[in-house]
Amino acid sequence: MPGIHEECGVLGIYRKDLGPVAEACYLGLCALQHRGQESCGIAVNEDGLFRVHQDAGLVSEVMNHRVLDALGKGNIAVGHVRYGTDQTRGRADMQPTVIEHRKGRLALANNGSLTNYMALREDFESKGFLFHTTGDAEIISCVITRERLTSPSIEQAVLKAMNYLQGSFTFVLMSPRKLIAVRGPSGFRPLCYGRADDGSFVVASESCALTTLGITEIIDIKPGEMVMFDEKGVHHNTSQMGKKKPSICVFEYIYFARPDSVLDGVSVHAARAAAGEYLAKEHPVEADIVIGVPDSGIDGAIGYARAARINYGMGFVKNKYIGRTFINPGEWRKASVHIKLSPVSAVVKDKRVVLVDDSIVRGTTSELIVGMLKKAGAKEVHLRITAPPFMNPCYYGTDIKSKDSLIACRMSQEEIRKKIGADSLGFLSLEAVRKIAAPIPESHFCSACFDGKYPTDIPDTMERDRYSKRLVRVGENV
To answer: Active site includes 30?
Structure first.
């Protein structure tokens, strides 16, 4: 559905012997598809020989049998799914990023956004470095490569590089002999790993990718932790831990992650259901049925119905077979609602409906969905949102770049209600949203998009506009 998008998901695999790492990477990336649907890529390492394939499209479209056969067997692989936070980034910014340097090579897939991207880039460019992308992965790779030239090992180079990186970064990196996983000290984005039955280790943005590969014992990588996998096993380095206060993106629990994932020991489904329960207490209403907007509103609707003691029903059927489209984004926001969602008239007709959704960004989608329910015969539609109003841009990997597109910055809550046509409107309070993922301490969450309290220095205007002067090649889809 149109709305807020997270930038991407990463996956890494290490095994001692050669095996079907490309196929395993494919399956894991399919499980992470919700984190990025614009492009994907896999890099396979066969005893130091790197083979890479990247393309625009869904994992199932890009990584067909011919491509997987060409990637061949290997002992290490890294993969990436991407949602570009800017439409002009095009094919150049696809990941994994591969760097060749004097001491070897590396392939890196990153999730997040550096707040000092422009400062790092300008420093490299002043020394003659030529960049091929506008992505953070290339900057991170360059910093690591610079440190590798004077470090005895790749892991030491990574640790040194972390001192120069600010903002949000969570990456997997493969060298000719090792797989390294890093979660930045602030811990904005999740990362976990586990061991498969065949002895291989798998690292992923979310636990759902590991369970897809049959892994049941899953370990969260902590903010600031580096985990390395090589022929001797698993090695943890915690020297960067505690340098910054954890600032976990609370929207991972509200929207980004898959409901069956467990992030930092907390079930995403349980967190969303708790949000619905808090919402029912904060914004009660007399109604006949509670429904959720598929998919991220369903768990909240279940929680709301349970707390309010109102029947829960399936108010929408979602068409799961709609692929990518090249309709322009403005038209796509409107068209996709009708293409992907169909109200179940038998459930909502002549009913007072509580409609639960995860957020209101521009208001366009909510207006269309409320209108669809009323056309299907709903007597009343009471919209409940499992997040506070979006009031501020995000600099850590979410595509909220300015206040211009945020309806809550232009209208009061009552004006929003009138615009979208709901009979009532209620947002979850900031106090409640910080409690939904207990037992994680409330102070360990980043909620800057709601309250404007950024846990790091924020970029200046030039850094926020890093994509505006990118070269576009003739024939490239943008």
So the answer is: no
